[in-house]
Structures are given as C-alpha cells and as structure tokens.
C-alpha cells in the first residue's frame, strides 16, 4: 500500500465532512440535560457520536490547515490551535458525560446536575476550577472558528463560502445569555454546514501524488 499526499488529503476531507455532519446531528438529537436523562439510551448514543465527531474533527481540521499552511499565516496557525483545543476539550468533557455521569446519577445526582450546568453557564455549585471548562471551551470555539475561517477565506484554497461561514458561525454563540441553552444548539448548525463544505472542498483537491511512505502489504 502506498501512502500519498492525495490520499491523506482526501482522508482529511472526509473526516472533516463527517465531523460536520455529526456536529449538526447531535445538536438536533441531543436529549434534555437532566439527571434523569443521563442513564437513557438516547444519551449514550448522542455522546458516543459526539466523541466520534470530536476525534474526526481533530484529524480533519489538521488536514484543512496543512493543505494551505503557507498561505494561512499566523492567523491560521492560532485559529487551528484554538479550534483543535476546542475539539480536545469536547473529547474530555464528552467522555465524562458518556461514561462517568451515568454511574454518578444514582449516587450523586447533585454533582451530575452541576456538571451538566457547565456548558450552559448555569449553577455549577462547588465544582471549583472544573467550572472553567465552560468559558475556556467557548473561547476556543469562538476564537478558533473566527480566526481559522478568516485565514481560510483569505487563502483562497478551499470553498470561500464555507470559510466565511466558519468565521461567522461561532459568533452566534455570543447569544448565550439571551436564549435557552437548548435553543442555542441550533446556532451550531452554520458551523456544521461550514465543516461539511470545507471537507468536501478538501476531498476534491488534487495535490501532488508523490508517495510519502511505502507501507509494505501484509500477505
């Protein structure tokens, strides 16, 4: 099997597009964030899909950035690092939601309720530094999306409409204090569409096809 730049680029494009599809899907199917909900099948399915979304997004967005690293400049670098941090934080928090909260629901419902309040900026009680996850993740999403979107738009390598949408979409999260958290999930849909567009655009690119590595085939 021969690993080529084209193959890796197309794989990154598919990962980005799949991450965008999952990002949009989980916003629509996400259960109400209550202690009773964390033990349901719907909760498990949603958060397993969210974990997959974050892992695919982390790999895909690296490919998106590297496909135009020379044109993205410092703005693109900072945007990529911040957006990658968002995916990493999402992975960590979602792991807790998927595997820890269901175990705590019966024994420590108050702690579960406080942990569920983190993304929406609600009452996190005595969680201390753990409560900082909310604003840190929000900042990484906002700064990363806006800066990376601007850099991609200026680079003129991938679909410019998707790049512009990535830059504008995260700004909608500034409506956090104005609308219920459940409705705020719909504000993530433009970013989901942007990721799908960027992924498809990256998949369609045709960079040089020189092999990077010759991987021996196991017979």
Shape from CA axes?
globular
**Helix tally?**
8
Instruction: Name the poorly predicted regions.
Output: 208-215
Mean pLDDT: 87
Distance between the termini: 11 Å
Helix content, binned percent? 55-70%
Largest sheet: 2 strands, antiparallel
How many E-type strands? Answer: 2
Query: How do the helices and strands follow one another from N- to C-terminus?
Result: EHHHHHHHHE
How is this structure best described in words?
- The protein has 8 helices and 2 strands.
- By secondary structure, the protein is mostly helical.
- It has one domain (2-207).
- Strands 1-2 form a two-stranded antiparallel sheet.
- α2 (41-66) runs antiparallel to α3 (69-104) and α6 runs antiparallel to α8 (189-204).
- The longest helix is centred in the middle third of the chain and has 36 residues, at 69-104.
- The protein is globular.
- This is DUF4386 domain-containing protein.
- Keywords: Membrane, Transmembrane, Transmembrane helix.
